[in-house]
Amino acid sequence: MSSLLKLHYFDLAARAEPIRLSFAIQGIPFIDHLTSRDEWAKNLKPNHVFPLDQLPVLEFPDGKMAVQSYAILRYVATLRPSYGLYPSNPLERLCVDQMMETFADIREKTRVVNVMPDGPAKRAAREELLNTTYPFYFDRVERMIGDNKYSAGDHLTISDLVIDSVFYWMFNIIELNIQPSILASYGKIRKIQELVASNSAVQLWREKREVKSLPAVAEGVAH
What we know:
This protein is of the alpha+beta class and 223 residues long. Helices cover 51% and strands 7% of the residues. The protein has a 4-stranded mixed β-sheet with strand order 2-1-3-4. Helix 1 (17-25) runs parallel beside helix 3 (69-77), helix 4 packs parallel to helix 6 (158-173) and helix 6 (158-173) packs across helix 7.
C-alpha cells in the first residue's frame, strides 16, 4: 500500500490544478490519478465510487476520502506550514480566503454562461461578462491587491494559484472564446500570473508533471 496521498481528477488543469501545484511547491510527492471521461461516465459515477459523485477527491492511504476542491486545497496547503501557502495568521488567512471566494464567484458566473445553449441569449450573456461583470470584479481585485506583491500579501499563497487556474480555465478549457486581452488594463492581476508561472516548482510540474522532494521545513518562502 502506498503511503502517498492520491488526488483523483480528470486530465485537466481546472479545479484540481491549484491542489497539484500546492503539492509541488511544498515538495510533497503524491499520486496524480487521472480519470478518463469514459471511466467516469461508465463506472465511477454510476457505481457511486466517490462520496459526492464528483471530483476532485483526495484519497488517504487508509482509503478515506475528502471532497470539495477548496477544502482539499486548504488541507494540502497546511501540510508544510513553513512554505506559507495558507498562512497561520488569521488576518492573512482572511485575505487569502476572500480572494479565493471572489474568484469562485467569477468562475461560477462564467460557468453559467458557458453551459447555456448556443444562441442569441448566450451571446448576450457573454457580452455581459466581457463588458460588465469582468470589469466590475477585476477593478475591485486590483484594489484588493493594492501594494502587495502577490494577491494576498508579500509571498505566494493558494489564492495566487486559484487566480492563475481560473484564468487558464477561462482562456483554454471552456468554449466562450475569452481572450487574455481582457486583462490588458489589469497589470496587478497579470503580475500574479507571471509570478506563478516563474516559480521553479510550478515550471517543473507543468513541463514534466514531476514533484521535486523538498525539506519538510522550508529554508525560505519562495517569493
